[in-house]
Amino acid sequence: MDLTQTTLLISILALAVLVILYQLKANASHPSRIHGDISKEDRRFLRQAVSVSATEVTLSQVALKTSSAAPVQYMAKRIVDDQTRVNRKLANLAWRYNVHVSAEPGPDVRQQAKQLRALRGSAFDQAYDEAIVEDHRKAIHLFTAAIASSNADIRHLAETTLPTLDLHLKLAEELDPHPAATPLPPM
């Protein structure tokens, strides 16, 4: 390699390093991404809320595929739709505050979903309903506590999500998977 090629190679490498440094600086100072400014409790809330929400979506997707009862199908679809919207908001906040979360269900939820898939008929509907009631009680407790957050974004998300969680819990608590032609409420 002669001197001209070496000089050219060094120049290209230097330019590449400058471009990378510029991109890192631009990403770090992006106005929509806030580093810090969030408490340990709020970080924990985001992680737990994503986990609870992923559980609800996962189990409800199983119900959509497994149950033939119209009320169970209605509730499962409603939960999938609503919680998918909540998941997007949670993921947005987690990204803004640089909190690493996983929207994938954990091994315990995958195991629970596997157990549910093995059930059929009213046994499935009852097990799904019990799981959803339990999960929504956890979620309501979690989001209720988040209302006290000093972070306005967390507080707002909790306040706007609680009515939806309350509705899901009410639907689950009132669920009779095999009613005699009960009309479904509008979506």
Q: What is the CA-atom radius of gyration, in angstroms?
A: 23 Å
Work out the count of structural domains. Answer: 2
The proportion of strand residues reads under 5%
Rounded mean pLDDT score: 84
Looking at CATH, the homologous superfamily of the largest domain is Ferritin, core subunit, four-helix bundle
| Overall spatial form | elongated
The CATH topology of the largest domain corresponds to Ferritin
Count helical runs. Answer: 6
Task: Say how many strands there are.
Answer: 0
Content-based structural category? mainly alpha
- In the CATH scheme, the class of the largest domain would be Mainly Alpha
Order of helices and strands: HHHHHH
Low-confidence stretches: 29-34
Per CATH, the architecture of the largest domain is Up-down Bundle
Q: Please state the oligomeric state of the protein chains shown.
A: single chain
| Helix content, binned percent | over 70%
End-to-end span in angstroms? Answer: 71 Å
Largest sheet: none
InterPro entries: DUF4142 (IPR025419), Ferritin-like (IPR012347)
Transmembrane segments: 6-24
Keywords: Membrane, Transmembrane, Transmembrane helix
Domain DUF4142: 41-175
